[in-house]
Design brief:
Distance between the termini: 34 Å
Bound molecules: adenosine monophosphate
Shape: globular
Radius of gyration: 18 Å
């Protein structure tokens, strides 16, 4: 059986990143990029986004070499999205220093046939109005997952709240869960979001792992313990890519399947943070992923 496809809409960007251990200038980033690369280890991915005419052919070739369908990657006159961020000594905390939407302003995503029929949809971090415009075009997605960011919770809350009842799996970090719900405590925050009709909430907690909340159960995983973290950018998106990639590849919808998917997500995230701009994912193999998955299983066995 071949793996079911995933369609992702989100940002494709150039990132300038400063962490306590170094700096990277204008590296390929964006929420949809990190997601698509991670998910491509498991399932076919249709990427829906926009780039400017400054987007290098070499980066297109890299994404295509991962088997990612770029038919939905529109090229518009102008500059590609730019994001600049700086991480604190505690790398769970970062500041956005600069954000330039550029060609994303005025982007009207239109899904092709294959993208529209994909059973798994991921609305990566981008303007919630665009997320909704994409969701409306799907034929009948079996799994709809969504991410967001403080920038949109503050600036586009009504559009985001309108989406919540249509989401099967909301993947957000603890700070975003607090901001969205108005609750300090993460468990209460997740409950509040579930009350709004979202089927399950997966809260990312950086180096402390992730917790899945659904009306029936709670499941927690640690992050893979690494001696050195270089750059956490994209870890959350790669995490979601691993989770949905596994669900698409296996067709799993059971609680156990979702738990295994979350461990795969954690594995992919652990590779991303090992280098700047997700460079480590360029060399990871399926064997590396399986090996670390087994190490993960051993890590939590008791
Ligand atoms: P993550 O570290 O997983 O939260 O994702 C970081 C990625 O999100 C970076 O590669 C940025 O290019 C992208 N990004 C940052 N801010 C935004 C935003 N407001 N909208 C869309 N994408 C963003």
């Amino acid at each position: 059986m071949s793996a079911a496809a995933i369609t992702v809409v989100g940002s494709v960007a150039f990132d300038t990143i400063e962490t306590p251990v170094g700096r990277a200038e204008e590296v390929l980033g964006g929420s949809a990029t990190h997601f698509a690369v991670a998910a491509s280890y498991f399932a076919p991915v249709h990427l829906v986004a926009v780039v400017g005419d400054d987007f290098p052919e070499a980066e297109r070739e890299y994404l295509a070499s991962r088997g990612i369908d770029l038919a939905g990657l529109e090229v518009r006159p102008g500059r590609t999205f730019r994001w600049t961020g700086r991480y604190h000594e505690d790398m769970n905390v970062r500041d956005t220093l600069d954000l330039q939407l550029n060609v994303f302003a005025g982007f009207e995503p239109r899904l092709g046939d294959a993208a529209r029929r994909a059973p798994v949809a991921f609305l990566a971090n981008i303007d919630p109005t665009l997320q909704e415009a994409v969701l409306d075009q799907f034929a009948s997605p079996a799994v709809v997952a969504c991410d967001t960011m403080n920038h949109w919770i503050d600036g586009a809350r009504p559009a985001l709240e309108k989406l919540l009842p249509r989401i099967d799996l909301l993947v957000i970090n603890d700070e975003e869960a607090r901001l969205l719900s108005g609750e300090r405590n993460v468990v209460r925050a997740a409950r509040r979001i579930l009350d709004r009709g979202t089927r399950s909430v997966l809260v990312k907690r950086g180096e402390y792992g992730a917790i899945l909340f659904s009306p029936e159960s709670v499941f927690a995983v640690p992050a893979y313990p690494l001696e050195e973290v270089f750059d956490p950018t994209g870890a959350g998106d790669a995490f979601a890519g691993g989770v949905l990639g596994y669900l698409a590849a296996t067709g799993e919808r059971s609680e156990g399947g979702l738990r295994r998917a979350i461990v795969y997500g954690s594995v992919l995230a652990s590779f991303v943070v090992e280098d700047f701009g997700g460079q480590r994912l360029r060399t990871v193999t399926r064997d590396d992923i399986e090996r670390r998955y087994r190490q993960f299983v051993a890590l939590v066995e008791f």
